[in-house]
Amino acid sequence: MAEASRIFQTTLMPSLSQTLSLRKHCSHQTVSIRRTSPAIIRCTISTTSSDTSRASTAPQPIPWGCEMDSVENAAALQKWLTSSGLPPQKMDIQTVDVGERGLVANNNIRKGEKLLFVPPSLVISANSEWSFPEAGEVLKRYNVPDWPLIATYLISEASLMESSRWSNYISALPRQPYSLLYWTRAELDRYLEASQIRERAIERINNVTGTYNDLRARIFSKHPNLFPEEVFNMESFKWSFGILFSRLVRLPSLDGRVALVPWADMLNHSCDVETFLDYDKSTKGVVFTTDRPYQPGEQVFISYGRKSNGELLLSYGFVPTEGTNPRDSVELPLSIKKTDKCYVQKVEALKKHGLSASQCYPLQVTGWPLELIAYAYLAVSPPSMSGKFEEMASAASNKNRNNKEIRYPELEEQALQLVLDCCESSISKYTKFLQASGSMDLDITSPKQLNRKVFLKQLAVDLCNSEQRILFRAQYILRRKLRDMRRGELKALKLFDGVRNFFK
Ligand SMILES: C[S@@+](CC[C@H](N)C(=O)[O-])C[C@H]1O[C@@H](n2cnc3c(N)ncnc32)[C@H](O)[C@@H]1O
């Protein structure tokens, strides 16, 4: 699935030719959409804006889509896709153990076999035709990038209910995608306090809010007939961005353009699998190639990318079972102390390379990046080494693709000790959360809320356990290295003393 941070211009080519006239305004809670024919479709839209600061506020549901586990809507989707040109499939949508709904083999599938073949006409991209062409034209005139363009497109089509060509697809989408976008600020603070993923979630929520506010100020408010606030509001944008974060696909063969690919987006992720969706120029469809055989009845998986557990929680709302994700990592924060005599010089050197006084680096069970140690060298280096600050800051930046390992034996011990201290400080935050989570008051006022809170807390506990496990591993390695280093120094010292005594 697509990296959220990238914004692509897409030229996939689905086309549809529905001629719907201007969207009409409607009463306070009801949106009326008038076509050229006299039929009027009404749908109730929540106008409640989200209040992320209130812990007990359950997010408002959207009036389209379905419950995450609805196989009825998914079966209707499969039927519609088949009648719309999806070739016969070796998989069916079913209720599954991993991911609630997923694609299950209905035939023997060989390793190395191409599957899916979703044609471009069944793909939603930035070039898809709008049921309200005027709305699409306005957004393109303003050069709205692909992500917000597709998000707006999805809301526009969803609000048309059965009149949209995509109605069967949208009805099978989750009404409330699982992702950290749906956690309130209080839930993030409470459950993810120890993890750096909390910052990423807040940043993402702010980006979505900022994008919506920008679209509203620059475009929607100037074209209220095309973009009525009853439909295009913060709540509907949270939904559409939640759908994009959890389902949008980046297609490397089409220069990394992004698209929603109905049917393909029913595939769940497995950390074991190394196969990705892409556009196949020879068959002119979205496919993936299996990296293992499947027997009838087995769930078929793809990879959503080489992501850590935190990143999977952030975009997709799940945490893989502990120890099963070889790409798992934890962000370790390092910083230059304000009391450092060379604070200003060090921060200036870092700024030159796009870094700041506080930086996070990913730790994996298999080790840590060279950049982290370079940052640690800079953080511990004394004023006498100011001539080396620039070199250290450059090596600490992962923007510098040709990074070579830099070594300062005289700083090695202090640098490793700093990394160890940071690990231990993080470990204690996780320990505090995990110990408290057992007795955490869930602040429940209804059974529905109980399910939600228990669910979120469990996700947070799973994430914290997996991140803490990596930190424990790093702690073990660092302690051993430091011990060996100090033993070596001691030996050298003893040897030196021995030689000195000999000459006495
Ligand atoms: C692209 S959709 C896959 C289809 C989805 N299961 C559905 O029914 O619509 C991505 C969503 O599926 C679920 N999912 C995918 N892989 C999963 C996994 N390994 N474990 C748990 N949930 C998973 C998550 O809810 C995620 O947000």
TrEMBL record:
Segments forming domain SET: 78-305
Q: Which positions are annotated as binding S-adenosyl-L-methionine?
A: 247, 268-269
Q: Name one Pfam family in it.
A: Rubis-subs-bind
GO molecular function terms attached to this record: [ribulose-bisphosphate carboxylase]-lysine N-methyltransferase activity; protein-lysine N-methyltransferase activity
Has keyword Methyltransferase?
Answer: yes
Q: Under which name does UniProt file this protein?
A: SET domain-containing protein
Q: Which GO terms describe its cellular component?
A: chloroplast
* Residues where substrate binds: 247, 265, 279, 304, 316
**Protein's organism:** Deinandra increscens subsp. villosa
Gene Ontology biological process terms from the UniProt entry: methylation
Q: Which CDD domains match?
A: SET_RBCMT
- InterPro entries assigned to the protein according to its UniProt record, in alphabetical order: Rubisco_LSMT_MeTrfase_plant, Rubisco_LSMT_subst-bd, Rubisco_LSMT_subst-bd_sf, SET_dom, SET_dom_sf, SET_RBCMT, SETD3_SETD6_MTase
User: What keywords are assigned to this protein?
Assistant: Methyltransferase, S-adenosyl-L-methionine, Transferase
